[in-house]
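Methods, example record. To illustrate the input and output format used throughout this study, we show the complete record for Type IV secretory pathway ATPase VirB11/archaellum biosynthesis ATPase. The sequence lines were provided to the predictor; the line carrying structure tokens was produced by it.
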Amino acid sequence: MADQRPDAGDPTSLPIFAAPPQQDEVDERTAPRDEVSQRLAAGAGTVSPYDRRASDATPPPPSVRHEQPTGAAAGPPGALRDAHPAAHPDDAVGMASAVPTVATVQAERLADTSGRDLGVDWSQVAELRTQASEMLTSALQDRNDLDPAAQRELGRSIIVELLQTTAANNLAVGQRAWSLDEQERIAQAVFDALFGLGRLQPLVDDDRVENIEITGHDNVLLELVDGTLKEGPPVAETDQELIDFLVFLASRSEVNARPFSEAQPRLHMRLDGGARLAATAWVTPRPSLVIRRHRLREITLEDLSGRGMLDAVAVSFLRAAVRAKKSIVVAGPQGAGKTTMVRALCAELDPWERIGTFETEYELHLHELPEKHRRIVAWESRPGSGEVGADGRQAGEIPLDDLLYDSFRFNLSRQIVGEVRGREVLAMIKAMQSGAGSISTTHSANAVGAIRKLVTCAMEAGSHVTEAYAQRAVAEHIDIIVQLHLDTSSSLGGDARRERYVSEIIVIQPGEDGPATTHVFRPNPDGGEPLAGILPDDYRDLARDGFDLQGYYAQAGR
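The corresponding predicted structure is encoded as:
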């Protein structure tokens, strides 16, 4: 009887290339534990990142796990094309249904947070990526009508042929055959390098990871969703390889490509899936970058309260402030959760309220929540390139303040500014003059310091903006500042953990010598959530919008 085991020398025996068997649906609530575990181990019911990038229309097929065979020969060069006609570049558009994607168990697919690598020869992956890139470029010369999704399918078919040819060549010169596990890892790594984030992709795909901090190719720190800090695996062989990949990544962006070079050593961009990347090189001893994953997109103030960021009384105050169209600034250090807090505040908006968001890179992603925000326009600024003009801008630059001014004719009732870092604060204040209310963020160590930061930002618009004018504008048009705090602590076991919480909430009103502040919620001397402080008389009206006035006074001891 013929041996039915998969051929270890033939890449077409990979789960990524083999048609999946038909499987009956299993109700995990009633199925025996061992059967459910087997299905999970096979990838059933999971969506691999490989398939998500290829198509969001249909779920991926279950992964097929094979025993590793021993000593088999590679098939003939044309076997792949004969066995899988859709794998040919000419049939790339049909690849989604003909060539299933990798859908392995996440714990196996992803790099372990303790630092385990993916177990592939990265120099070989780099060589294969170069070859695949050249083949793809050549194929696209005659097929320039393909959209990005079809290009990825074409790239996948090219990887199929390239792996088959490489496997056959390896056997021809007496090298050992790849195991099925090796083939699967190499195929995924080459695809990630060509269309994804290369060695960074497993970390970005890991649902346990929230932030990735890299200082040099082999100095990687992962912040998990529970605040734990762990060392991660190297993301390149050398610092130069890491820089080269960042240059490649910035230039290939399908939307809003960014320059990255010695002349422009700073890179800020959004990645597929909504993560934000910030990188720098040449002006630091080693290339450094941070990737921030926004895991909490659909978040509410109650959710944040459940996470210990603020109590129920503070939740009722902020909810009422949003409904009363107060202008709110969320301040705090980097990584304190300002963007998450803004999302939670925006969750209190009426779904039919027409709003605009303004960001340097999309992070709020409110426009991706149509059930919560039905009338929204999302703006993203654009960096320039080349020489700086007489107006101090590079050619093609579209800054936030321009976008804010443009938005005045878009019938907006509220403007949400992702982060105030400069002169755009003046445009934001101008929008506030209509009384519609605004929500924004800025970096600051404390709430009073946030006022000074906003005044400084306003003065960056030019000498015509005096300090007195900036202070008056801030005092008259910004109502509330919510200050976030970030604590980092180490345990006896060596792990570190981060904790985020609201440390104070102040109200701003015009005063004789500039903005006058009142601590509605004052800092807790023992740390953690703030304590009820003093409530200005005119803020008692927030009770009509749901503020728990009785609970506030009880907490304040009055």
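Annotations derived from this record:
The two ends are 88 Å apart (CA to CA).
The first strand starts at residue 209 and ends at 215.
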